[in-house]
Every structure is written in structure tokens, then in C-alpha cells.
């Protein structure tokens, strides 16, 4: 079978981006690429994504992870291999997958004497894909010593690695809040219960709740819908929100305070409310000892930046709570800065080799220990 290069794989993946848990063509392309490689076993624990096993002895395993899903964003890069559909790899998961594939190739070529698992994970963009893979029990039969991941970013120059000990990425959860009031003509406000007014009161309360914390927390409300026509008091208001904190425990505390605020408004105005929440993304924790080992090795060929915590969220958090882990930003900027999740975000192909080198350094760091 023909073995393709990581850059060839990246171009194919970039042309066919797919949303979370719909990555069937993506998975087919990955299977076609890794299927041409020797010395591995491929597992399919979930309908999309895959786990590649490289085993050379009876010892423990290292887990390296990449994500594979895309976003519902219309691409605006002008590339010859731009997306052919309404989605886009605007978070760089095509690069992550190609880096992991290239690193797998290198491990096989060099006959590395360390057992490893390579996870191409579905559903990172809000779907809780890490949990869906872990819940299959696929990892229960392996003794996993450490887990590793990278995330591209044009906040940092190409050739830079950024990480920090402790919390690197925030815990996050998405909330949908629905407030039910009573419809009436605006000329007779006493006959209705204004759901939009109640929602405004709730949002005011969230400002006070956020300010009450001594630690960094964040509440964002990106979308609100309410009402039907201009002269009718709205009977329903919907808000799509997210909250971020440095631990999942703080998230749960915030949610309880939100429920209490909504209950107080319900008693005052007579509204009814619903609060729906997705599964939380736990914070990404970088193991202190592993940080020291990886920083030392990465600094030999990369500019290494201690970037502190970020309020961005990442599904790798569940792995970092399960295994001592190291994750880092992989700088991709050559002067441009568009930011993640934007139509022009495009890490250059040369970032793939940088990512392979970064994973290689992480591997060397733990093998030297």
C-alpha cells in the first residue's frame, strides 16, 4: 500500500471537514493512511475516530492524542485545497491529526522501545468526545503512564511552544436557559409576564455572581431569542451561554448560584424556567513533574514560553484528570494573526513537522527519566 506524507494527509483532511461525531470520511482517510503502516493494531471503539496501538513489550503505555472534528464555519483562505463543504478546520484539527500521523510514522521507522497509543479523537468541539471514547473501556486494558497533546495557535510564532504547570485550559460548560412568561398586548402589561424582562434580571444577577468570586471565572451569553412581534409582551426568552472557571467544581458552584437567582426571579415575577447543561469539560491540568521534564527537552530546539492559564477550553481535560499529562500550544504564526475559529485561520504546512518534533521531544523527556 502507498504510504502518504503527513502534509498530503493534511490537505485531504482540510478539504473534507466534518462536524463532531459526523467524521466518517475523516475516519476513512485516517484509516487509509495508518492502514498502510506496519507494526500497529487499529481499534475502532467509537463509530468515528480510531485508536492505534503500537506495542513492543509488556510494559506500560504512553498516550498521544489528536482531535479530528471541524466547525460550521465558511472558509475564507483561498487555498487550492480549501474546504469543499460548509464546514472548516478552523481550529487546526487537520494539523493535529497530521502531526499525530507523522509522529506515528516516525515511531515505527525508529523502532522505538516504548508501547504507545495514538488516539484520533472525535467530537472535541463541544461534544465530549473524550468521554465517549473513555466510556467504551478501550483504555482499561492498558497501563497508561502519561498522556500528551498539542494545540496549534497563531498567538505564538512558529517554532514556539507554550505551556504552564497546573491549570493550562479552563473548565467549561454550556448552558441553555429558557424562561416562560405570559403573552399579552403591550398596552395591557398587567395581563402578561414579560419573559425578556426576567431574562434581563437574570443576566444582571450573573454579573454580580461572577464578581463575587476571588478566582478567575467567566460567564458569556452569545445568543438570546425572545418574542414574536413588536407589540406583544414576550412569553418566552432563550439564552445560550457558557461559563468558564479553573476547576469543574467551581463551575458546579456557579450553576447552583444561577439556579438560585432564577428561582428568586420566579418567585418575584411568576415565571417558569428551565436550565439545561451539557457535560462539563474539565480543566486541562499539566503535571508539575512532567512539565519540568518536557520543558527541559523542548527548550533544546523550541522557544519555550510559560504562558499561564487560559480561559479557552479543551476536551483533553478528562485525560489530564485520569493520567499525569502534558499539553502545550504549538505556535504557527509567521506574522499573521487571525485567531482560532475564524474563516481565515490556517496554520502553514511546516507547522506539522514542528508538531512531530515537539511530540518527539516529549517522548525523549519521559524515556530519559
Note the main attributes of this structure:
single chain, 369 residues, alpha/beta, Aminopeptidase, Alpha-Beta Plaits, 2 domains, 9 helices, 32% helix
Write the layout of secondary structure elements.
Blueprint: H1 6-15, H2 24-34, E1 41-43, E2 50-54, E3 61-67, H3 93-109, E4 115-121, H4 129-134, E5 144-157, E6 160-163, E7 166-180, E8 184-185, H5 195-211, E9 217-226, E10 232-233, E11 236-245, H6 248-269, E12 272-277, E13 284-286, H7 288-298, E14 303-306, E15 310-313, H8 317-322, E16 325-333, H9 350-368
Parallel strand pairs: 3-4, 3-5, 5-16, 6-14, 7-15
Antiparallel strand pairs: 1-2, 2-4, 6-16, 7-11, 7-12, 7-13, 8-10, 9-11
Question: What do these coordinates show?
Answer:
This protein has two domains: 6-165 and 287-368, Zn peptidases (Aminopeptidase, 3-Layer(aba) Sandwich); 170-277, Alpha-Beta Plaits, CATH 3.30.70. Helices cover 32% and strands 28% of the residues. The chain is built from nine helices and 16 strands. Strand 3 (61-67), helix 3 and strand 4 form a beta-alpha-beta unit.
CATH topology of the largest domain: Aminopeptidase
Q: Helical segment tally?
A: 9
User: Would you count the extended β strands for me?
Assistant: 16
User: What is Rg?
Assistant: 23 Å
Low-confidence stretches: none
Overall mean pLDDT stands at 97
